[in-house]
Amino acid sequence: MRPALETKAILNPGEAIQLYGMSARRFQRLIQSKKKLPFLALYHKRKLIIRAEFDKYLDEHPEEKERLKKCQRTNKEDAIPSEEFCEVAKVSGLTENTSSNTW
Q1: pTM for the full model?
Q2: Quick one: 37 and 63 in the same domain?
Q3: Strands, DSSP E only, in the chain?
Q4: What residues contact 50, with CB distance under 8 A and at least 6 apart?
C-alpha cells in the first residue's frame, strides 16, 4: 500500500502537480529551467521535490505560486468566466462574454 501524498516528504513531479493542483506544463517548465531551486533533488536522472522546501519556496515566492496555478476555463454552457480564470485567457481576450468563444 502506497503512503498518502499528504504524508510524503519527497514527491516526484507528477505527485507534486497533483497534490498542489498546479499546471503540469508550468511546473515542468520551472523544474527544467536553469534556476537554482532549493526544493529540487536529483537522483540519477530523476528530479524529486522536497516537500518542506517546496512549501517554503512557495511562501517566499507568491508570484511563482500564482503562476503555477491551473488555468480555470469558463463554464461552457453559460460562457461566464470562473473566479480564477487563467491570465493567458485574459491577455488573449477570451474573458469577454461572447457566444463565439469555443474551447
Answers
A1: 0.67
A2: yes
A3: 10-11, 40-43, 46-50
A4: 9, 10, 38, 39, 40, 41
Task: Specify whether 36 is located in the same domain as 21.
Answer: yes
- The reply to whether 61 and 88 lie within a common domain is no
* Same domain (yes/no): 79, 63: no
What are the cell numbers at 68? 503555477
52 and 81 assigned to the same domain: no
Going residue by residue through the chain (103 aa), what tens digit of pLDDT does each one get?
A: 888 989 999 999 999 999 999 999 999 999 999 889 999 999 999 999 999 999 999 999 999 999 998 775 545 554 444 444 455 454 544 444 444 444 4
